[in-house]
Design brief:
Subcellular location: Cell membrane
Number of helices: 4
Structural class: mainly alpha
Radius of gyration: 18 Å
Main location: membrane
Largest sheet: none
InterPro entries: CASP_dom, CASPL-5
Number of strands: 0
Subunit structure: Homodimer and heterodimers.
Number of domains: 1
Shape: elongated
Family: Belongs to the Casparian strip membrane proteins (CASP) family.
């Protein structure tokens, strides 16, 4: 998810720069770079969410670590996995919108 934060921060800085300088970002090469970047971050966030879900299932169901250990709160892990999948859904929607912007340029 660190790459996702860096990618989003870079795009936000580029948007602020373009708004201050009144520049147009509708260059086909630049938009295609954004599309590929969004696809890569969407794929990586899906992989991270799926692997985290696998670890939660391993701890909660297979090893029963959550039932035996009182210090380990598995509910937090489950909530974080749900948020990771929510992040993936939002990133996938963003990459889909960027694809349609690329088609319109």
């Amino acid at each position: 998810m660190g790459l996702q934060v860096l990618w989003s921060f870079g795009l936000a800085c580029l948007d602020i720069y373009a708004l201050r300088r009144k520049r147009d970002l509708q260059n086909p090469i630049l938009v295609s770079l954004f599309v590929v970047g969004d696809w890569v971050t969407a794929t990586l966030s899906l992989a991270a969410a799926c692997s985290s879900a696998g670890i939660v299932v391993l701890y909660a169901r297979d090893l029963t670590v959550c039932a035996t250990s009182k210090r380990l709160t598995c509910n937090r892990y489950q909530v974080s996995v749900a948020m990771a999948f929510l992040t993936w859904v939002l990133t996938a929607m963003s990459s889909h919108v960027m694809f349609w912007i690329l088609a319109s340029v």
